[in-house]
Write a structure and sequence with these properties.
alpha+beta; seven-stranded mixed β-sheet
Amino acid sequence: MKTSPPIIACTERHLPAIRDILNDAILNTTALWDEEPRSMETITQWFELRKRGGFPVLGIESADGALAGFATYGPFRTQCGYRFTVEHSVYVEKSQRGHGIGKALMRALIDTARAGGIHMLIGAIDAANEGSIRFHRAFGFTPCGTIREAGCKFGRWHDLDFYQLILEASAAR
């Protein structure tokens, strides 16, 4: 049986790799609807906001110590009534895809969310991204809405699908 690589908490030393992974997604996919690559300053600010908010940035390193992928979640919306609902992201470095990195990161993210009292994970997915949809469904995420023509990238309109995973039927706090 194949064992999953260890999950780590990303640190400042991982920020250049996080930037590179995100910028590849920005430039080559519709996983992110940004059009301009992110700077180190932007990534550093993003990471600091995650830390201040108590949100995880989990990673997996390859055998050579390079970041193979990362996963995180943050606020779904800013009003306090949404405090138990988070929007998540999982990104894998392109040469590391297909090796179970994304699955291991998603499992760890779900476990972290449960342990932290999170009630629901939300995934916002380009409706044409069948791979991401299959990935989320494999973890029990269910569709919960579509916003038609929500964004424009690569010269065309994209629909945005929302998928949810309710972690527990706990009482509201």
